[in-house]
Specification:
With 161 residues, the chain is mainly α. The protein has six helices and two strands. Strand 1 and strand 2 form a beta hairpin. It is globular and about 55 Å long.
């Protein structure tokens, strides 16, 4: 089983249909939309436009062509929100989606979906930068337009404001 808790053994098609409905409701709901918007803002504030897989946060080496390698704190999509909120993610088990969901104030279905998309939905060998762009596009495609969520496409991703 993966960090998302997703498995391939859905014994009944109705179980899968119910789960996808729960995910869709979580994304469309008020808490889900607020969290996606917050995640977009947190990702935009990251010093480097990159996301890691399989952990909420870790120290990673980032390559710069003329400066060599530097150490940087790297995060996954949910970890970007944790970093922005100042949450000590070293105390969280990244594989315990119940605790992660509770800590971030989102439904378990939404937490599992974001973790699955962050960790497993990309192609094999995907770089952290490609993962960042893929997750950013997924967030943009799931945010509703309205007064609470201004257009994100015009914002500079990965740059400080």
């Amino acid at each position: 089983m993966s960090r998302s808790g997703y498995t391939d053994d859905c014994d009944y098609e109705i179980t899968w249909i119910n789960w996808r409905g729960a995910v869709k409701s979580a994304i469309r709901g008020k808490r889900g939309q607020a969290f996606l918007y917050e995640m977009a803002q947190a990702m935009a504030a990251l010093p480097f436009p990159r996301l890691i897989a399989d952990d909420l946060a870790s120290t990673d080496k980032v390559s710069f062509s003329h400066w060599g390698m530097i150490e940087a704190e790297s995060v996954c999509a949910i970890g970007a929100v944790g970093k922005a909120r100042g949450i000590d993610m070293s105390q969280l088990d990244p594989e315990d989606y119940n605790t992660v969901a509770g800590t971030f104030g989102i439904s378990e279905a939404l937490a599992q979906e974001i973790v699955y998309l962050n960790d497993e939905a990309g192609r094999r060998g995907e770089t952290p930068e490609e993962r960042f762009n893929r997750m950013r596009k997924w967030i943009e495609s799931n945010l509703f337009d309205g007064p609470a969520s201004p257009p994100l496409a015009s914002q500079p991703w990965g740059s400080e404001k």
